[in-house]
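Extended Data, panel c. Modelled sequence:
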Amino acid sequence: MLDWSSKQAYIILGNMLTTAAMLGIDSCPMEGFNPEKMAEVLKNDLHIDTNMYSLSVMAAFGYRDMEAPHKTRQDLDNFVTWLI
């Protein structure tokens, strides 16, 4: 059940990240966290029953401190060959 529900969480996460971008909110999905330490935080600080709930993925949301640098992109014809 945990494996299935974790995969389902990514569907919701994708929608959350897209919606945040549309609202001008920066976001970043995070994996690679220490599940045991995060379970302690959930249990002790947020009073979440970690026997019933588990953490699959985390995401950070917020507003940037300064404007992002201007992106430069190569011309598409520099690296794409169109076969017609």
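The first helix runs from residue 2 to 22. This feature is highlighted in the accompanying rendering.
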